[in-house]
């Protein structure tokens, strides 16, 4: 099982444009319309399935909010920061 | 613009398995694993785009929560109950 990260480790490892929100890390990805956000959500869901680490993804018009936490560790681990970085790569 | 529904109209028109939550109607659709839920979310997003009425869709493992409201009317209208019924059809 992945180890919980310390506050300092989270701050150091948090990928660009992600923020910590308690036991989760969160980023809102922005899009010019609805379906591009839906497509992005599907794409990162595939990455998540590949990593077997499943975020909460909320789709609204022009925005996709992604929240990551490691439930079995009870907080934020490298599984979260690593997957967040892969999601960033998919967005660029 | 669609007219706001009265409490009685909402109760009468709410499709199966949907609940009212203040100014929104909500249903959680259930799946046996992650990607089937993701695929369902993409499918109903296409229906939403077709209707030009965009729900909030939240994907987690095995569940897709859908929330509908009519922002420009400030509450629940037939646009919401009609689209909810179409989402139910897509789930069956």
Automatic annotation (TrEMBL), chains A, B:
<dbReference type="InterPro" id="IPR036428">
    <property type="entry name" value="PCD_sf"/>
</dbReference>
<dbReference type="GO" id="GO:0008124">
    <property type="term" value="F:4-alpha-hydroxytetrahydrobiopterin dehydratase activity"/>
</dbReference>
<comment type="similarity">
    <text>Belongs to the pterin-4-alpha-carbinolamine dehydratase family.</text>
</comment>
<keyword id="KW-0456">Lyase</keyword>
<protein>
    <recommendedName>
        <fullName>Putative pterin-4-alpha-carbinolamine dehydratase</fullName>
        <ecNumber>4.2.1.96</ecNumber>
    </recommendedName>
</protein>
<dbReference type="Pfam" id="PF01329">
    <property type="entry name" value="Pterin_4a"/>
</dbReference>
<dbReference type="InterPro" id="IPR001533">
    <property type="entry name" value="Pterin_deHydtase"/>
</dbReference>
